[in-house]
Fold:
Amino acid sequence: MTPDPIGVAVIGAGMVGRAHANAYRCAAGVYAADTPPPRLVAIADVYEPFAADAARRYGFRRAETDWRAVVDAPDVHAISIAVANDLHREITVAALAAGKHVLCEKPLAPTVADAEAMVAAARAAPGQVGAVGFTFRRSPAIAAIARQVGAGPLGPVRHIVGNYWCDYGHDPQRPMSWRYRGGPGSGVLADIGSHMVDLAEWLCGPTRRVGGTTMTTVVTRRPKPLGVAVGHAGGVALSNEREPVDNEDICTFTTGYADGAVGTFALSRIAYGHANSLRLDVFCERGTVSFDLTRPAEFTIADDAPDDDVNGIRTVFVGPAHPYVHGGLPMDFPTVGHGQNDFFVFQARAFLDQIAGTGDLPPCPDLAHGLHNLRVLAAITAARQDAAAATGSPVATTT
Amino acid sequence: MTPDPIGVAVIGAGMVGRAHANAYRCAAGVYAADTPPPRLVAIADVYEPFAADAARRYGFRRAETDWRAVVDAPDVHAISIAVANDLHREITVAALAAGKHVLCEKPLAPTVADAEAMVAAARAAPGQVGAVGFTFRRSPAIAAIARQVGAGPLGPVRHIVGNYWCDYGHDPQRPMSWRYRGGPGSGVLADIGSHMVDLAEWLCGPTRRVGGTTMTTVVTRRPKPLGVAVGHAGGVALSNEREPVDNEDICTFTTGYADGAVGTFALSRIAYGHANSLRLDVFCERGTVSFDLTRPAEFTIADDAPDDDVNGIRTVFVGPAHPYVHGGLPMDFPTVGHGQNDFFVFQARAFLDQIAGTGDLPPCPDLAHGLHNLRVLAAITAARQDAAAATGSPVATTT
Amino acid sequence: MTPDPIGVAVIGAGMVGRAHANAYRCAAGVYAADTPPPRLVAIADVYEPFAADAARRYGFRRAETDWRAVVDAPDVHAISIAVANDLHREITVAALAAGKHVLCEKPLAPTVADAEAMVAAARAAPGQVGAVGFTFRRSPAIAAIARQVGAGPLGPVRHIVGNYWCDYGHDPQRPMSWRYRGGPGSGVLADIGSHMVDLAEWLCGPTRRVGGTTMTTVVTRRPKPLGVAVGHAGGVALSNEREPVDNEDICTFTTGYADGAVGTFALSRIAYGHANSLRLDVFCERGTVSFDLTRPAEFTIADDAPDDDVNGIRTVFVGPAHPYVHGGLPMDFPTVGHGQNDFFVFQARAFLDQIAGTGDLPPCPDLAHGLHNLRVLAAITAARQDAAAATGSPVATTT
Amino acid sequence: MTPDPIGVAVIGAGMVGRAHANAYRCAAGVYAADTPPPRLVAIADVYEPFAADAARRYGFRRAETDWRAVVDAPDVHAISIAVANDLHREITVAALAAGKHVLCEKPLAPTVADAEAMVAAARAAPGQVGAVGFTFRRSPAIAAIARQVGAGPLGPVRHIVGNYWCDYGHDPQRPMSWRYRGGPGSGVLADIGSHMVDLAEWLCGPTRRVGGTTMTTVVTRRPKPLGVAVGHAGGVALSNEREPVDNEDICTFTTGYADGAVGTFALSRIAYGHANSLRLDVFCERGTVSFDLTRPAEFTIADDAPDDDVNGIRTVFVGPAHPYVHGGLPMDFPTVGHGQNDFFVFQARAFLDQIAGTGDLPPCPDLAHGLHNLRVLAAITAARQDAAAATGSPVATTT
Structure:
């Protein structure tokens, strides 16, 4: 039976955890007004000041420092998990076992094996929602693009070019963190590439082939932090000691999809000047659509309308005619603008609706979807071409 | 004594009223976490379904259909007024007399005389906040621009070019509403020009001279609506009957400021393709800054750094280094994005802080400021040049 | 009888003169291949090295230092005049009297009286072409826009917003020149505003009313140059002595047109970061078109095609479907790009075609057109509002 | 001994041939004014009307229909070859044997073996220039970027993302031509990818590894033309008969460079809405530079100047401070604009200077460079991953 109201909690009060906390606070205001508002119960972080600040700020009743206190709490029914990847499995499995609904951040886990265990736990709890947070599916503009391609008016995708460029790792003085630990594929590929792989499959169908994977680590050692950092932001005192970075700063690869589309992907966490540039260019049978996260509330489309000397690439500002905006923003005319934090609100609303059986938003991808995503990431990593690999084609071109 | 918690209400549950309601709901989450969250008490609209929907959606305890019920309610301490302009005076004066803090939408009133009465009422209630909602002052990018000009690194403004182009009136089938009633100056000048005049004075100082005002009404008659429309959105059944539009669709004028800057302004509510394009180009002694509301989270700046072959116009995405963003958005890195609804949240926080004596945000402009704005609008209207006016310079150029 | 080949000359070998010289050299290659190529006869400049360099560079047979040598030469049939404005009258009148075809740069002359004398001279030489160089009419994108508005698919113009921002005068160390001499209206209004006034009339019809003119001079004194400068470029030694600037750095005004359109104009020669930004936004009955010279080979258009969730502002790259490009550029596909120098080539071709009676390009505007333009500039200047003027509306808004 | 003047000829009078013809006509006007202007001798095309039109248009003395007439002409000293790739070898070898200087279009030849023969012919004629036309190296903006990276202020490249998207093949009704014939790699990879591979090596150094190559052909059959088409433009009558397309519409691959940079490349000739979009994003140690051919006269740069709240991505309009512009355009201020046709002029000037031993432009890449380029293309083709290839990594992700 759906609890009423749903008691929600967030584990992790870093930058992403705050986005989840805010999302629950705002979720009641969006879409179907008769959806029961959740009760904001608890937010947890090992660093108590973060938990306390987020709890006060977003109106949660309790701040906790141990995630188990959240998982065990009888007044908590649904939990967002926004902590380091290597904790996802333990918390998710425990939460599901405790009867909670779970929305776990991406990538689902450090390894396929971990994710398999999580999926198994979800299967053992069939009445509970086990979801993974592919938040960009809640972007109104990307969702509008998804309507255009494939079965939409532009027809099947022929080629997708996906670039995701961040600069959080550009400065070698940014402190060591869990994001820089793990083997190949656990770096920029897992962190932001997981989103890109998911979006590409949304638009193109299942990945059938990957190749040409090249990974490089440019900043090979980073200073140990002497305190706790939130997000990527630094601002923390640094040790003179440096620790090795285990995973990739840059990753590029190509893909093939079941329906014949091909993909080109470039990922970087050291892209100076690009705080968070997710770009999609999607070439279809009857036109082209593009998206750039730096202008989150718009997309461009080129097709044959009108097919004459005023044909061009149209910049479309999303509004009530597009997904999520009507009822999702108080003022909702085109160009009113929104940001990534709003994506989390729409996602929270969808997650709560799934639990309550209300609403008509697309459900959150389930844990098996998150596992599938990890398997594609693993295949990309396995297709790696480096000095030691046999798959790269050396180019000898001296004349 | 500041009530704790502050009981808030919104009068008007149209598009702008909803933005206020959402803003109070979210205001507790932004900035100083120890600021007491407000109690969301009541939202009123003559059209009951609007009031009820907004109350449920944003978590207000009561929906009312008579604004007097709000003004009279002892558990309401602060009121946002977001209704047709010709009701501003009556409600504001009553609310102030009832001991409430007031945040009234712009333009403050239909006439200077109305606004003078409101200012008088505010002077008679010195312990209460009487504020006007110039929301664009809460734009992080515009506030960042304000830091650059005048006393900032770019120095005094030489020239400001302000364009505010909307398309809400472009379609002649959009129904008649209060926005299309009133004499010259009550149309696009009052509706969106009031914002532009305010922003220009923020950046350039007091207006000293206006001239060349030209106003035209292109859509001279509009169909009577048969129901209630929210915002500009139409979607309402229309009568076959048409009513005359009283005020201007387009308004353009030039200005001079006390410190020598000059201004060029173009306003339109029939600008096809421009849902809400507010553009500022501000030319200063040592550089130029520009803003375009269609990309609300960025601005451009050109100055002499670096002064060589890589000098150019920089696109700056606002982030924690700029006003409002840090603590105002859960994820707050540059390019995370935000929209106009967020401006209302920042404004609500500032209004509540003023009442509570907390925080360090700039206070809301007071009612006298709103009166001043109306006086500038009146001067612009008085400088009108049309067929009947003596001030225009006819151009006879036949050879 | 049309001479064959037409002997052409250029008077003035500064930056604009070079553009004319290059244009004649290239004109044979564009459009109707059977148009006779001109003979490149002479180029004159008081500063001999400029004349000699341009003659060598663009393949003219003679370099002269006295314009009279050009006007008197029997092998010269057509002359471009690209010198300081105060020489336009004398040279044009002499050239027409000597039986030459004349293409004179804009603005036609320093005063209306001068221009009237030039028009009279042209009337006395009815078999010769007397033309004025409104080069932006040869922009493929602007010409494409002209096809859309008025009688075109977008219908009559309602509002035109014209901004022309340069930075050639921003640096107070740039030397004094003829551009900074003359009374009000001879500064930025004459120099670049003349283009804007012309383009606006092309799109909107005759100017009927001007108002609100505000002119300011920010850089009031400039250093005397110790040598000869080409274009705006400086690079010349400067005296310690400074001379007063006589005319305006900034000019803004509003207009009304015969058919009801209104105009808003902002001109500046001290606009940091804008080397040469000519922007037009043209709002019509059925859509909006815009142009920005910094991207010279494109324009944007918004209309109702397609009228649904993919409607937006289209960026159109000019190509063979648009004016001038097909046959005007060797490779001529959309996005191949071109620049302002190409406008001069197209203009030269049109001027030569007029002389030869060939081709189907629009003819160059005649001298009477240039006179009309000056009369509008004079009316704009007369509508000036400053401390001494009675027409400005002072704004007294103290509460 | 350098002939004076140099007699020049162009073989091929299609769109690219015309660009070469125009370039020779204009080359005398750019840069060192004392460089001897060439004599425009002959232009050849098997389709006589093309040859005749181009000869008349650009002022060449003779139109020929047999390339041998050009190669054998004693008054021709330098030849541009702009015909179908499979003729490059024969003409180049013959021209070199006849003592001519040769500028051959890219890609140098259909096969590495062909190109080796051409290089051998060039080695046998050491006193003659044998060059390949990588025209984009003459882009002022790309050349400006090249100054910034590597040994420039931004330091070594870490990652290059190269997209080259055209739409000339999008319409299945466009006629069959030589561009659609040849095996894998002879399609979009050879046609436009050759440019991209060359630019990437210019910025990053020699390619050391390629991988992940995926090629697809979307339009598999095209109608036979019934006449002669120029460029990609169609406009020719079509047969009902269709012929198979032999080569790829889309090609994507990744690269590694000797100095550690990695590359991501996406090429398409069926990219709706992109007439000719060549985009480069170059991520370096100390900043990022980007270029987009649709705005050919600008580039963007992000670095740490100034490193504070006004840091951003700068849009730099090329001008006299950048390569090629000063002396290369008559009016040469920033934002004056230019297009791809100008690149050919700069290239022609460089080629003539090489022959004459004048000037200081970078020389044209030689035939060995063109051979190297082909070898990289061959390696990319060899790294192909398709249904039949063993190198692709299949992704099996079913749960």
In short: Chain A touches chain B through 51 residues (CB under 8 Å).
